[in-house]
Amino acid sequence: MTDPAAKPSPATKPAAAAPKNVEVHIAGMKFNPDKLDIACADSVTWVNDDDVEHTVSSDRNSELRVATIIIPPKKSSDPTHFRMPGTFSYHCDNHTEMTGTVTIK
Ligand SMILES: [Cu+2]
Taking the model in full, what pTM does it have? Predict the structure, then answer.
């Protein structure tokens, strides 16, 4: 395996709360991790490792809502920013047993 996104060496020491992008992988019909805590400045990328399409769709009672994200097989979502604290609970429209939560502090 090659690493196409090799990190550049940091020129300066990053701040303690530097924003980061966190990956949630989808494999075997599960979100992993299915519960994620992030900071407000962070973003989330969903990576579909499965051979079928999945979606990331807000639950009805979700405090935070995003437009449904459709992720084709072996593809990734764009980094998703939430920009406010709250709980984003979501599911896959194609497989309703697939659920996850992102808590933004
Ligand atoms: Cu699915």
Answer: 0.83
d(CA 68, ligand 1 centre) in Å = 12
CATH topology for the 21-104 domain: Immunoglobulin-like (2.60.40)
Burial (0-12, 13-18, 19+ Cβ within 10 Å), 81 = middle
The string of pLDDT tens digits covering residues 17-68 is 799 999 999 999 999 999 999 999 999 999 999 999 999 999 999 999 999 9
Choose among 76, 60, 67, 66: nearest CA to 26: 76
Report how far ligand 1's centroid is from the alpha carbon of 24 (Å). Answer: 13
CA terminus-to-terminus distance, the chain? 35
Residue ranges of the domains in the chain?
Answer: 21-104
User: Is the backbone peptide bond immediately before 33 cis, with ω within 30 degrees of 0?
Assistant: yes
